[in-house]
Design a protein that fits this description.
The complex is a heterotrimer. Chain A is of the alpha/beta class. Chain A has helices at 7-15, 19-30, 36-43, 63-76, 129-140, 155-163, 176-182, 186-189, 203-215, 244-260, 263-292, 297-306, 312-325; strands at residues 51-57, 81-87, 96-97, 113-119, 145-151, 166-171, 192-195, 227-230. Chain A has two domains: 48-263, Rossmann fold (3-Layer(aba) Sandwich); 276-325, no CATH class. In chain A, helix 9 links the parallel strand 7 and strand 8. Chain A is globular and about 70 Å long. Chain A starts with 6 loop residues before the first helix and ends with a helix. Chain B has a five-stranded parallel beta sheet with strand order 2-1-3-4-5, with helices on both faces. Chain B is built from five helices and five strands; from the N terminus they run βαβαβαβαβα. Chain B has a single domain (8-127), classed as 3-Layer(aba) Sandwich (Rossmann fold). Helix content of chain C is 48%, strand content 7%. Chain C has a domain at 70-408: TIM Barrel (Alpha-Beta Barrel), CATH 3.20.20. The chains are: A alpha/beta, B alpha/beta, C alpha/beta. Chains in contact: A-B, A-C, B-C. The interface between B and C is large, with 32 and 47 residues. Strand 3 (96-97) of chain A pairs parallel with strand 2 of chain B, so a sheet runs across the interface.
Chain lengths: 327, 134, 563
């Protein structure tokens, strides 16, 4: 038997800003260990105050270098910054290459920065329930800003808007067709569209495409109109970097909008709704399978479906009635 | 019920040594073997490596040494790990060393050394078998 | 041993006798070349139906030089036996140089350590741990004086291995010392590696941004073209690229791509191709596949001749000659059963000579364990001497020429290399391929392939995946250690120099250097003066870096003391 961890003590240490404890707690929620609920219950009252910034985009778009510049900028403003970088797990081996730490290494020794790499571990949509918990843990340890960086591959771009106060979508020139394809959903995704690598050939054309996509949208009176910010986040000389200050300004502007228009309330509502939904889904499944354990019924249900005597929908209805609704 | 634990490994070069081919190859192969790998890259001092390992809560630190710097940096890394109480982290090293230095490095606190010419199965299996209990 | 024991022993050996039978009928495990090309059972005239000897092959010494750059090859002069030396302090390195030259080495060859290549002085916080670990640290002109002490610089041929943007500093330090001792510049013979572009792939990216690499690399080339007619001003290092894991045709293609970056810049500066191209040299790897490596070298000679003639309009045949040194493949050596490395090195050295090499460094057998010990160094030199004096390989030019197999493989190497060069061109040229990290990705994926070939037995390596033995406890011939005392002394001397030098004089010299860089002039003359004023490696390079918009210190730790 493993020694049970002292949750109260750990959370106290976390609230005092202890990094080692934060690291351990994140592992604990990532691995869905048994103390997860207790931990999150203790932590929850100490969360909700941080600005949560989502950054998504295709691999190689420059998300991590943008994150690097944003960290530097927030630090100069005296803010502490937590960063959660989510990388995909290989569907074959389950392994993951969390490689972008290289770009963030300048901040390693800064106690005001806490960076954590996470593997998506097979969660479709990149952002798992653990991501919510990790954000909470970073808030509880005292981070003023939490940046969540994910590889945009469709679904997670949608996910991240629920998790973040401000959502950045990073595009690059030469994504031509992708940008066209994005047109439809582009408004739902991003508060700010970053056209990174704006020094490359074709940047002007891509910028026009993006502007074109936005021009057909007429937001309701008083609603946020997404901004496009061209940037150059990688250059061997500092003087060749472009658009970082503009990006920071756009983020502030969006934050002000959220506060003044009270749109922040809607963001928080939607985030909590999704979080609640995710937890319900996970816990219900666990509860039901736990209830069936040892009864031999799970196997029976599955076999009856395979053999065509039953279907999953009928089984779910039956189980829900038996074990939940009637209870 | 807790999920199966994924092994998390941090791979780093130490100091100025730029021979990164091995570290990169090993990182990729560990990923293929189902581990979650953070490749830290080049130019790290011991404090850097250990702090990243602590924040990331890794199970394994893998150091790559190819410039004869192993006897200089190893004690510093072990010392940093002690300072941060990373006593349940497996510390392994790969690269070029004379046979005579292997016992010395083990005494300093490296759990296992893989010299150039090691096969993937050797280090993957070693890690799987020896990751410390938490 | 009594009878029962013997019988018992025979019994327990049963399985190994089965192995014996298997060994008797054994066939080669791979029918591919090292780079992965399928090979036929035998090659015949039918494999080269279009052969045009005069046009594609020709005698040695005749365009396109496929068979060698000199008509009589080694009958005219043996290759230079040049063992790389670099260890601890300048004084330690000097001692080893002297030792090897007393043992019959015919060229001096010194290599910079990681701190020097990164452009860091010995007292830099990032350098102090690693001074002298992988070569020699030269922080000031005083170190160059120590290194070259009592050596007649007009009589020896000295190869200075500084590859990074520190190469112009090395050149300035060498020139200053030589001139101060009364040597004329055009009497100096030797070479400097000076290939900062390739060095970004060897872990020196902070010191080798692309524009600065082209600027400073070309400064050395331009200066030497004008003032040092006997000096080879670059050795484009395809060897280091190969060590990243790429295959033979990639080695040639990427090496030529980098060479063209420098040539284009020199032409842009107004130099005539025939004025500078004859002093262009290459550093080539010789790996374990004997015939493929010879074919690679022969193909490279043919391709270089055609490239210089057709693309750059060279008229002087010397411009079209592919001159090269060989470094036997360090990455083919392993620490398991280390004496076997002597055999590997000997085969690779043989390959280099069959390929018509100009200058050869044999790795020492202890390369995968430590810096070369004195005995191992001597052993490497003896390997060259046995090859040169006992085997008869020096008698005839291009002894493998005309082999159906080698000629056909030469064509294949050329075809594959040209294909890769075309791909690079389609990416927008070499500079673009570098900038977009396309080369990085190719190196990485090839390196993984190499490891998998060993893992799955596609390639065999004795001691790694076949005929393995228990790990040995000691290194035969002993371990070379770098003296911590030497390193400490080197650091102290640098600190002392910085305390005692004339700062006014130095400031003026640094200002001249800064002005020259700003005005787009060649940096070498101002570097020579700044080094005479005891400006250090880090200070000279930092000054140039700042003008180019880079942080003074590649490690971004120190600020310029001159601002």
């Amino acid at each position: 038997m493993k020694k049970k961890r002292n949750v109260k003590e750990m959370v106290e240490k976390l609230l005092a800003g202890d990094r080692r404890t934060a690291a351990r707690l994140i592992t604990l929620v990532e691995n869905e260990m048994e103390e997860q609920h207790e931990v999150m219950k203790e932590i929850y009252p100490h969360t909700g105050q941080a600005m949560i910034l989502g950054i998504t985009g295709a691999g190689g778009a420059g998300k991590s270098t943008l994150t690097d510049h944003l960290i530097k900028n927030f630090r100069e403003q005296g803010k502490t910054v937590g960063v959660a970088v989510v990388d995909p797990s290989s569907p074959f081996s389950g392994g993951a290459f969390l490689g972008d730490r290289i770009r963030l290494q300048k901040h390693f020794l800064d106690d005001g920065v806490y960076i954590r790499s996470m593997a998506s571990r097979g969660h479709l949509g990149g952002l798992s329930r653990a991501t919510y918990d990790v954000i909470r843990i970073m808030e509880a340890m005292g981070m003023d800003v939490v940046i969540v960086e994910t590889l945009g591959a469709g679904q997670d771009e949608i996910d991240i808007i629920h998790i973040a106060n401000t959502c950045l979508l990073v595009a690059t020139p030469g994504m031509g067709d992708d940008i066209q394809a994005m047109k439809a959903g582009i408004m739902e995704i991003a508060d700010i569209i970053v056209l990174n690598k704006a020094d490359l050939d074709g940047a002007d054309k891509s910028l026009r495409h993006l502007q074109g996509a936005l021009s057909i949208v007429c937001p309701e009176e008083g609603k946020w109109m997404p901004k496009i910010v061209p940037t150059v986040s990688v250059a061997s000389k500092p003087v060749d970097l472009k658009g970082i200050d503009e990006l920071v300004a756009a983020i502030s502007e969006h934050q002000e909008y959220l506060q003044e228009s009270r749109a922040i309330d809607q963001v928080k509502f939607e985030r909590t709704e999704q979080e609640l939904g995710l937890i319900f889904k996970d816990e219900l499944q666990k509860l039901i399978f736990k209830g069936l354990r040892g009864t031999g019924k799970k196997r029976k249900y599955i076999n009856s479906i395979i053999e065509g005597r039953d279907d999953p929908y009928s089984v779910v209805e039956e189980v829900l009635e038996k074990y939940l609704v009637t209870k | 019920m807790a999920k199966k634990r994924n092994i998390k490994v941090l791979v780093s070069k130490v100091g100025l040594d730029g021979h990164a081919r091995g570290a990169k190859v090993v990182s990729s192969l560990l990923k293929e073997a189902g581990m979650e790998v953070i490749y830290l890259g080049m130019f790290h001092m011991p404090e850097n490596i250990v702090k990243a390992a602590m924040d990331e809560d890794v199970d394994v630190i893998g150091l790559s040494y190819l410039s004869g710097e192993h006897l200089i940096f190893t004690p510093k890394i072990v010392e940093e790990m002690r300072k941060h109480k990373l006593d349940d982290v497996l510390l392994i090293a790969g690269g070029t060393f004379p046979a005579e230095d292997i016992p010395t490095m083990e005494e300093m606190g490296i759990d296992k050394i893989f010299r150039a010419g090691s096969l993937t199965d050797d280090f993957v299996q070693y890690i799987k078998d020896n990751v410390k209990k938490r | 041993m009594d009878q029962t024991n013997l019988a018992e022993k025979e019994n327990t050996c049963k399985t190994s006798w089965d192995d014996y039978l298997k060994a008797y009928y054994e066939k080669p495990s791979s029918l591919k070349s090292w780079s992965g090309y399928d090979l036929k059972e035998i090659y015949t005239p039918a494999d080269r139906p279009e052969e045009n000897y005069e046009k594609d092959v020709a005698d040695a010494g005749t365009y396109p030089f496929t068979r060698g750059i000199h008509a009589n090859m080694f009958r005219g002069r043996l290759w230079t036996k040049r063992e790389v030396v670099g260890i601890g302090s300048p004084a330690d390195t000097h001692a080893r140089l002297k030792y090897l030259s007393e043992q019959g080495g015919s060229g001096l060859n010194t290599i910079a350590d990681v701190t020097y290549e990164m452009g860091l002085d010995a007292d830099h916080p990032w350098a102090v741990n690693e001074v002298g670990l992988t070569g020699v640290n030269i922080t000031s002109i005083k170190d160059m004086e120590t290194l070259t002490k009592d050596i007649p610089l007009d009589k020896v041929s000295w190869s200075l291995i500084t590859a990074s943007t520190a190469a112009p500093v090395t050149m300035a330090q060498y020139i200053a010392v030589a001139e101060d001792r009364g040597y004329k510049l055009d009497a100096l013979r030797g070479s400097i590696q000076n290939d900062p572009i390739h060095f970004r792939y060897c872990g020196f990216r902070p010191a080798c941004p692309l524009d600065l690499s082209i600027k400073l690399g070309s400064d050395v080339m331009e200066f030497c073209t004008e003032k040092m007619r006997k000096w080879y001003y670059t050795t484009v290092n395809m060897y280091d690229l190969r060590e990243q894991g790429i295959n033979a045709p990639q080695e040639v293609a990427f090496g030529f791509g980098i060479a063209m970056c420098y040539i284009d810049e020199l032409i842009r500066r107004g130099l005539d191709i025939d004025d500078f191209a004859p002093r262009f040299t290459f550093y080539v790897s010789c790996h374990m596949d004997i015939f493929e490596e010879v074919a690679k070298i022969r193909a490279a000679r043919r391709m270089w001749a055609r490239l210089l003639k057709d693309k750059y309009g060279a008229k002087d045949p010397r411009s079209m000659q592919f001159r090269f040194a060989v470094h036997t493949a360090g990455c083919s050596l392993i620490p398991q059963q280390p004496l076997n490395n002597i055999v590997r090195i000997a085969y690779e050295a043989l390959t280099a000579v069959l390929g018509g090499v100009q200058s050869l460094h044999c790795c020492s057998y202890d390369e995968p364990m430590c810096l070369p010990s004195e005995k191992a160094h001597l052993q490497a030199l003896r390997t060259q001497q046995i090859l040169a004096y006992e085997t008869g390989v020096t008698n005839v030019a291009d002894p493998l020429g005309g082999s159906y197999y080698v000629e056909s493989l030469t064509d294949k190497m050329e075809e594959e290399s040209l294909k890769i060069m075309k791909q690079v061109e389609d990416l927008g040229g070499m500079e673009e391929a570098i900038r977009t990290e396309s080369l990085d990705r190719q190196c990485e994926s090839e390196a993984i392939k190499r490891q998998k070939e060993l893992d799955n037995g596609e390639k065999l390596s004795v001691g790694v995946n076949v005929f393995t033995e228990k790990q040995e406890k000691t290194t035969p011939l002993g371990v070379q250690r770098v003296s911590a005392k030497s390193a400490k002394q080197q650091i102290e001397e640098v600190k002392e120099l910085k305390r005692t030098r004339n700062m006014k004089k130095l400031r003026d010299a640094i200002k001249c250097l800064r002005d020259d860089v700003g005005a787009g002039k060649n940096t070498i003359p101002a570097m020579i003066e700044a080094t005479r004023a005891f400006g250090t490696t880090g200070e000279l390079l930092g000054t140039v870096r700042e003008v180019f918009g880079y942080p003074y210190d590649p490690m971004e730790t120190l600020e310029s003391p001159f601002n």
